[in-house]
Input
Amino acid sequence: MRCFKNISLLGGVLLALVLALPVYAEGIEIKTAELESMEEALHLKADIDIVLGQTLEDALNKGVPLNFVAEFELKRPRWYWLDETVSAAQQHIRLSYHALTRQYQLSYNNQQRSYPFLDEARRELGRLHDWPVAKRNQLKEKQGYVAGLRFRLDVSQLPKPLQINALASKDWNLDSTWHYWNYSS
Output
């Protein structure tokens, strides 16, 4: 009987140690998202936390570029019918690694930036700033809208052999789901 008490005590200690370890779950989480009204357009500002799993990091370091898509939509709710889509926009961002220069590169909006470390490139990948998503003349004064943002890995841009792998494995499924918030003009 005494032996079982020691085993249950040991199990409790191990469980406490496991729970105390930091957990780094892979995935995408939208931390903040807001619209800023500029002269002629609404600009999106968002901070997104992106954690790549070991499978994606290995593929990236072996030369496989990862293509991400930021999707935005602005809708006007209607009680009598489906919500009206006022604006929809997409931004494509490519993260790649160049072994010759040992640099990670982000490519978006005809710009390229290089980073020596993956963590720096990942943090910059998760920052969407000054992205024009809607024109001011599309909005009605004193009207309420619902804005939505989604950030995901675009598996259709992977090389064909990896696309089959991506469909069968959860390691390649990186998606933030839709993040919604209210906006008033």
